[in-house]
Amino acid sequence: MGQPDVVNVAQSFREGWQPVLASEYPEMNILSDHGSRWPDGIEVGGLLLCRAPQAQMRRRTEHFTALSGRQMKSVNDQLEAEQDPRFRTMFRQHSSNVSVGFGPNGGVKLRPSKA
């Protein structure tokens, strides 16, 4: 929106993200914004290129996967607790599909999964 988002930047830096130096990718230096707050970094269109350690991102992904799993279990447990088994009106069916491509015939199924 045309203004720096200092809260988002500070939070990202606390999470372990670090700006990528322009000297590491000299071919990107021509694309960097003029008057950037990070003159040594790569900033294009107000977006700063950053990186984080792979192990840290793996732990983050595992944390949020476990969190969403606990949330789904809680919802399912609550649903079962509120239903009278004699009057089953709601049934749970979880499935997801991952596809690659786009368009009417471009999607290729990779792996169906049922939970």
Short description, anyone?
By secondary structure, the protein is of the alpha+beta class. The protein contains 2 helices and 8 strands; from the N terminus they run αββββαββββ.
Task: Describe the fold and architecture.
- By secondary structure, this protein is of the alpha+beta class.
- It has a domain at 18-51.
- It contains 2 helices and 8 strands; from the N terminus they run H-E-E-E-E-H-E-E-E-E.
- The protein has helices spanning 6-14, 54-82, and strands spanning 18-19, 43-44, 47-48, 50-51, 95-96, 99-100, 108-109, 113-114.
- It has a two-stranded antiparallel ribbon. It has a two-stranded antiparallel ribbon with strand order 2-3.
- Strand 2 and strand 3 form a beta hairpin.
- The longest helix has 29 residues, at 54-82.
Mean model confidence by pLDDT: 78
Task: Outline the biggest β-sheet.
Answer: 2 strands, antiparallel
Can you count the helices? Answer: 2
The gross shape turns out to be elongated
H/E element order: HEEEEHEEEE
Cα Rg: 22 Å
* Oligomerization category of the chains in this entry: single chain
The count of β-strands is: 8
Instruction: Walk across the major sheet and give the strand order.
Output: 1-4
Write the layout of secondary structure elements.
Blueprint lengths: L5 H9 L3 E2 L23 E2 L2 E2 L1 E2 L2 H29 L12 E2 L2 E2 L7 E2 L3 E2 L1
Antiparallel strand pairs: 1-4, 2-3, 5-8, 6-7
